[in-house]
Amino acid sequence: MSDECEVVTTTGGAQAILDRRVGEVMHPVVGPAVEAARLYCEPARLAARLQRSEPLVLLDVGLGAGSNAIAAWRLSEARTAGPRLTIVSFERSLDALALALRPEHAADFGLDGAAGAAASTLLGAGVHEAARTTWRLIAGELPGSLAGAPAADVVFWDPFSPRANPELWSVAAFTTLRGRCRAGATVHTYSGATAVRSALLLAGFFVGVGEPTGAHKAATCAAVDPADLEHPLDRRWLARLARSTAAFPADAPADAYSRVAGHPHSRSLRRAQPSARRHSHAPQSPSGELHRDDGRPRRLKVESDP
Ligand SMILES: C[S@@+](CC[C@H](N)C(=O)[O-])C[C@H]1O[C@@H](n2cnc3c(N)ncnc32)[C@H](O)[C@@H]1O
């Protein structure tokens, strides 16, 4: 057993894993179970999407201790019917999962019972088949290993911070990811950094604000179809981008700002929203969001990122 990883107690009192090689804790503060639900499964509307008729592919980028993946696996296996979920986890080191699976830690990481048996099989054999869920491991270095990914519907993007993992918050990495995304795919990540959001826009995604992650901080959701964003970045975000000293990742092109300004996301902000607000007769919720016939939010109210 490697001693590169250690179980620590977060300030919120949860058990989490510290990777000593990078000096970062996976799911710091609130801990793995709460973060997996709040920042990944819930914003992805995974439970609802698993009720539809089509099989779903989830890319779990940065398997770590398996907390995000096992939260999705549990949602899927709790169903008695519905399409198959395939989870594809990407990881270069299995140390964290091996540590979380130890008997003294397994329950703290949601890896007890059938979930733990599934994760153990994944660790040993690289794949596990359950009644409604296939779970596969693609071992190796990201972002190159994304080349082996099937076309995705949902992505949990959970590497270490841009300081520790700059290559995974780059325009190049998100462009590779965009190439693996199907129509209707959504991407969920904890980072709300301006450079992360601009990289996603430069890679061709539409981008919105996700769940709060702390004082003046929020996660990020990106989507292939802008209709899948509840809170798209707004004009104030674009204005702040122009003033930001950390607006873009290192591999952004020299004309990055004009590319973002010319992105369909930015053009739609300039073009559509004021008139849509004035003239639409669609039903409106108390929060100001309009809802389409299929129940998905239709973005008219936009949020600025803190
Ligand atoms: C924040 S942790 C992931 C936590 C995980 N999602 C969970 O729910 O427990 C980031 C993970 O990304 C992995 N990682 C970082 N850089 C990588 C790379 N270039 N290729 C593959 N895996 C990488 C690390 O080994 C680490 O396990």
Automatic annotation (TrEMBL):
Domain MnmC-like methyltransferase: 137-223
InterPro entries in UniProt: MnmC-like_methylTransf, SAM-dependent_MTases_sf
Keywords: Methyltransferase, Transferase
Highest taxon above the source species: Bacteria
GO biological process: methylation
Compositional bias (Basic residues): 262-281
Cited Gene3D superfamilies: Vaccinia Virus protein VP39
MF (Gene Ontology): methyltransferase activity; oxidoreductase activity, acting on the CH-NH group of donors
Basic and acidic residues bias spans: 289-306
Residue numbers spanned by region Disordered: 256-306
Pfam families in alphabetical order: Methyltransf_30
Protein name: MnmC family methyltransferase
Species for this entry: Nannocystis pusilla
